[in-house]
Amino acid sequence: MRGYLRILFRSLEAAVASWTEYRLDFFAALLTTLVESAGRVVAILSLARVGVLDLDPDRALVYVGAATLMSGFFVSVVGPNLVAFSRRLLEGTLEYVLLRPRDPVFLLMTETASLWGMTDLWAGAILLGVGLFRLGAGPGEVLVGALALGLGMVLAYLFAFLLALVGFFSVYVHNLVNLVAGLFGAGQYPVRAYAPLVRALLTFVVPVYLALNLPVELFLGARGVGAVLGLFLAVLGLWLLVRLGFALGLRFYTSASS
Amino acid sequence: MVRGIQNFARKFLAYLEASLGRHLAYGGELAFWVLAQSLPLVFLALWVEGGPRPDLDYARYYFFAWIAGFFHPLWVAYELAYEINTGRLSPLLLRPFSPALDYLASQLGLLFVSLVLGLPVAVLFPVLFPGFFSGLELSRLPGYLLYLLLGFAFHFALAWLIGSLAFFLERSTGVLEAYYGLLYFFGGVALPLDVLPPGLLRVLEWTPLPYLAFRPAAWAAGWEAGTGYGVLALWTLWVGLLAAFVWRRGLVRYGAFGA
């Protein structure tokens, strides 16, 4: 376990070091975050004002904050790693990972990170914090909610990774990542506000409800703590599925040397 | 003169054909792109569930805003910046006409292929919303097409400007991410802008944003929305002039390997 944590920190460190070379990108990322956060807040407040959503402004902030954190996680962790994974498949360099004495799926999921999403993570934390503070949430709810949101992010990541396994058969994964990130973006609004067809899609096909709405409901104290256990089981189940899919995919993998 | 134009047209058509073939070859990748491009349609499900207007109004709005999105050739910026940074622009400069034509042909090919790939999504509309087409006013079509044309021109100019900045900056395309955010939330892609606070909307009307998705879609869907071709045309003009200026200044600075 400690070995895995050390690997995680080392790859983060390396990624941060390589990204600080381009300072202009940081300002671009900051600008993007400001625009998008403003957009999300204006959109959700407008939707609540015309009655499409049944939310008060403070709860809306909690929803937007959680979605912004998820977006930052996708930009900084999910996207870069999936792109790196697909490049390994394309170039036949997956061996470099397979030969290492640790779990290859873990290594692939934590290989790199990008600073692009950092500003989104800050903005998300601020929005979430302001919303919760104004609602007067207790420390228990905040703790449970944060834990659930962390699990939700892992769940979303595993789901994206599962889809990226098509990389064993097709070379382009980048647009797939955008697609999944966009679908989780739909979770900036409560899933129950969507029409039944889309509600079912975002609940049962893509785990947007589990990964984003459930943590928010825990933050808001609208759910029992038992929901965290359910979320944990979902993460575990998806992890096993990803491992299974990865093992299957490896059978179709041929590298430059084989 | 006529021969010259004929000659030029023949070359450009050859470019188009090549571009079409190239994009068709990557049909699988583009299919994902078209799907990603169709994501805002998810929000339609919010409006039909609880929006104040009739369902068909929203269905038509999101449909036409979605179509307009294909007429935004912003990829040009990434490609141009990449080719400037890596020096791959050099062979394009050797050709007897501007590299802009290469990009234009490429984007038209992409537009055609993505519209075809978008057909399965488009078919969903009349299926999910009976009477989708019957209430549309044909007289609004020319206005909508004019918006699409202007939107294409504006984004081509903007992409050329941002791409050309790569002559001067190591990374110029980062700012596009912010622009995508603006277009998404304040251009009418994610939600119709008439629900925004009126003061904000009045400010936005001075920018090109509402004329790229909101106004065209509202116009084609038959909503009572004003037009604003002039605003968009003016923006296209001055962004285009700026792009041409930066491009020319950049070419003077440009030096690839071996130059």
Walk me through what this model shows.
The complex is a heterodimer of chains A (258) and B (259). With 258 residues, chain A is mostly helical. Chain A has helices spanning 2-19, 23-49, 57-91, 95-98, 104-109, 118-135, 139-164, 174-185, 196-205, 208-219, 226-250. Chain A is globular. Chain B has helices at 2-25, 27-37, 44-50, 55-69, 75-86, 89-93, 99-117, 119-128, 141-164, 174-186, 198-204, 214-220, 229-253. Chain B has 259 residues and is mainly α. Chain B contains 13 helices and no strands. In chain B, helix 2 packs across helix 7, helix 4 packs across helix 12 and helix 5 packs parallel to helix 9. Chain B is globular and about 60 Å long. Chain A binds chain B through residues 22, 24-25, 27-29, 31-32, 34-36, 38-40, 42-43, 46-47, 49-53, 170-172, 175-176, 178-179, 182-183, 185-186, 189, 193-195, 197-199, 202, and chain B through 26, 28-29, 32-33, 35-36, 39, 42-43, 45-52, 169-171, 174-175, 177-178, 180-182, 184-186, 190-191, 195-197, 200.
Throw out a few tags for this protein.
heterodimer; A: 258 residues; mainly alpha; 11 helices; 75% helix; B: 259 residues; 13 helices; 0% strand
Question: Low-confidence stretches of chain B at least 5 residues in length (pLDDT < 50)?
Answer: none
Q: SSE order of chain B, as H and E? A: HHHHHHHHHHHHH
Low-confidence region ranges of chain A: none
Helix/strand order of chain A, N-terminal first: HHHHHHHHHHH
Query: What is the 3D shape of chain A?
Result: globular
Q: How many independent structural domains of chain A?
A: 1
Helix count, DSSP H or I runs of 4 or more residues of chain B = 13
Total separate domains of chain B: 1
Q: Would you report the number of β strands of chain B?
A: 0
**Could you tell me the radius of gyration of chain A in angstroms?**
19 Å
Beta fraction of chain A: under 5%
Largest sheet of chain A: none
- Strand proportion of chain B, as a percent range, falls in under 5%
- Secondary-structure-based class of chain A equals mainly alpha
Distance between the termini of chain B: 34 Å
- Main beta sheet strand tally, sense and closure of chain B: none
- Count of DSSP helices of chain A? 11
Return the average pLDDT of chain B rounded to an integer: 89
Largest interface: A-B, 42 and 37 residues
Shape of chain B: globular
Portion of residues in helices of chain A?
Answer: over 70%
